[in-house]
Amino acid sequence: MLKNSTLILFILLCTLSIPAWSQSKTALPETEGASKVVKAYPNPATSKIYFEIQRNNDKVYEIIVYNFLGKKVDHIKNLSGRTEVALDNYYSGLYIFQLREKNGTLVESGKFNVVK
């Protein structure tokens, strides 16, 4: 019974929370060929994950990582170029990340999976 309740809660949180995170006051143009600002790889990850800024624009970003329950588990500041994040303190599961500008404006969100 507890596993079923947890699964239902997880599904509800994902369907309610993720669309709200993907909205931004300054939305990027929505064209079919729009490229992502950040790339997270490998996905799924086991021991480390890389966040790579795809656009060469001299901006400095930060990434906030949340677990599937919406709890903040990591905050990576001063992100530019390629950054490696060790997953030693991460449990197996699904994580959501938000790429934000230094002033806090949401640029992009995504997800990655940790498998141990």
UniProtKB/TrEMBL annotation:
<protein>
    <submittedName>
        <fullName>T9SS type A sorting domain-containing protein</fullName>
    </submittedName>
</protein>
<feature type="domain" description="Secretion system C-terminal sorting">
    <location>
        <begin position="41"/>
        <end position="107"/>
    </location>
</feature>
<keyword id="KW-0732">Signal</keyword>
<feature type="signal peptide">
    <location>
        <begin position="1"/>
        <end position="22"/>
    </location>
</feature>
<dbReference type="Pfam" id="PF18962">
    <property type="entry name" value="Por_Secre_tail"/>
</dbReference>
<dbReference type="InterPro" id="IPR026444">
    <property type="entry name" value="Secre_tail"/>
</dbReference>
